[in-house]
Amino acid sequence: MTEGGSHGESLRALVASAVGDDLSGSDDPVAVVERGDDPGPAARLSGLVAGDDSVAGVVPRIDASIARSVADGVEETVRLVFTGRASDRFDGPSGAAVRSILSGHGVEAYRHEGDSPVGILLVGDRAVVGLFDDAGLAAILWSDAPPVREWAAATCRRFLSAAEPV
Question: What angle do CA 42, 56, 135 make, to 5 degrees?
């Protein structure tokens, strides 16, 4: 996905294509952080969700530190659809432990059989989109721009409607 460009550039292009807008003229800024930036994507994600009332999203990978920071930073509801590798974590001997940890953090978990290299979170009025590679979270993009929020919400609804509770 990053042929000829950075993870951040790839993520910005993917979101722009999905929303049908290059996002450059928006009054609502679009910000991107990628691996190697200071702070990096995982640290920035923690700050984006901290203190918000609710988070809903689609997660293709389970990274314990990221999951903990999302669940601990939200004051009320965390509803996540796990897809791809993240969904696979509910199988086998570790499945019970993963379910227990999520439940202990108040996460409403759902399982989706598809896959995606992109994670999407709705955090209040903000959409947060993460690009994952083999090494984990490579970049995040966040924006309050209506086209990005609308696309993120529609995508989350689509995944949730095709998911089963864990």
Answer: 30
Is the model's pTM score more than 0.90? no
Compute the mean pLDDT over every residue in the chain, rounded to the nearest whole number: 86
Q: Which amino acid is at 152?
A: A
Distances (CA, A) of 77 to 50, 53, 63, 109, 114: 13, 7, 19, 11, 24
Residue 44 amino acid letter: R
Cα 27 from Cα 125, distance rounded (Å): 15
Kindly write down the DSSP assignment for every residue of 43-110, as one continuous string.
HHHHHHHTT-SEEEEEES---HHHHHHHHHH-SSEEEEEE-THHHHTTSSTTHHHHHHHHHHTTEEEE
Other Cβ atoms closer than 10 A to 44: 20
Residue-wise pLDDT for 7-52, tens only, equals: 999 999 999 999 987 777 666 688 999 999 998 998 898 888 877 7
